[in-house]
Design a protein that fits this description.
The structure is a single chain. The chain is built from two helices and 15 strands. By secondary structure, the chain is mostly beta strands. Strands 2-3-8-14-10-11-13 form a seven-stranded antiparallel sheet, with no helix packed on it. Strands 1, 4, 5, 9, 12 and 15 form a six-stranded antiparallel sheet that branches. The protein has a two-stranded antiparallel sheet with strand order 6-7. Strand 2 and strand 3 form a beta hairpin. The protein is globular, with a radius of gyration of 25 Å.
């Protein structure tokens, strides 16, 4: 009797139709919004984040030499082809359009002591890097419009890198903010952003001016750009040679 009952249960299990999960309505939203440019370094604004701007270089050389320092005492910046970037504002041409890979090398000069103030002259010698403007249709950083991240539901950014320098800041400049007050990733925790090899995820809640600086708090509604800035320091010059790729805005 027990055997017949067991056979009956087995037969019932065979005859019962399998339940299939209807996943036609299931979707997974990727929080990443790739910010890819064309070969000229232009991001056309068609991305879901609505970011429209240009990749450009910046380097302290022009102001550094005007302040009386020699070229050898100022920072140097080279593009991925080995070309010297002598002025700021030059367009960055990605090495790989599929990932937006951008490579750069150079030296962030040692900040020399200003003989007038007897302090490191960070006003003249401040380093080099690249930036992507966020609301700039004409490649005119001085007249670039601000970008409102919360209005676009953007909560942060991510990127990948290979050998980041230890004195790098990932900065988010805003309108009317002087250079020393520019907010950066990890500003409340250290002098520089903790950029690691591989994937880095930035929460805009973790962007702030340098800790204990007394500068106004970071406002994510008035961003001009994202900058990858290798800083000059007073102790020594800092060579760098690295790439970034897969820069994305994030919705979580």
């Amino acid at each position: 009797m027990r055997a017949a009952f067991t056979r009956g249960l087995a037969l019932t299990a065979v005859l019962l139709p399998a339940c299939a999960i209807d996943d036609r309505e299931l979707t997974v939203d990727d929080p990443r919004i790739p910010l890819l440019s064309n070969a000229q370094g232009f991001v056309d604004g068609s991305n879901r984040a609505g970011i429209l701007g240009y990749w450009t270089y910046f380097v302290d050389t022009p102001g550094c030499t005007v302040a009386g320092y020699s070229l050898e005492q100022c920072s140097t910046l080279f593009d991925s082809t080995g070309g010297l970037v002598s002025i700021g504002g030059g367009l960055v041409h990605p090495d790989d359009l599929a990932t937006g890979r951008i490579c750069m090398s150079g030296v962030a000069a040692q900040a020399r002591v200003n003989p007038t103030t007897m302090e490191p002259d960070f006003a003249a010698i401040w380093g080099a890097g690249i930036q992507l403007t966020f609301n700039d249709a004409a490649n005119e950083v001085a007249t670039s419009q601000t970008y409102d991240a919360p209005a676009h539901k953007i909560t942060g950014f991510s990127f990948e890198t290979d050998s980041p320098p230890a004195v790098e800041r990932v900065e988010f400049p805003g309108v009317g903010v002087p250079g020393a007050a520019v907010a950066y990733w990890g500003g409340t925790r250290g002098l520089y952003s903790v950029v690691r090899r591989g994937l880095n995820v930035i929460d805009l809640a973790d962007v702030a001016p340098q800790f204990a600086s007394g500068y106004p708090p970071f406002d994510p509604r008035t961003i001009l750009a994202i900058r990858f800035h290798v800083n000059a320091i007073a102790d020594q010059a800092t060579p760098f040679d690295y790439c970034i790729w897969n820069l994305s805005a994030r919705t979580e």
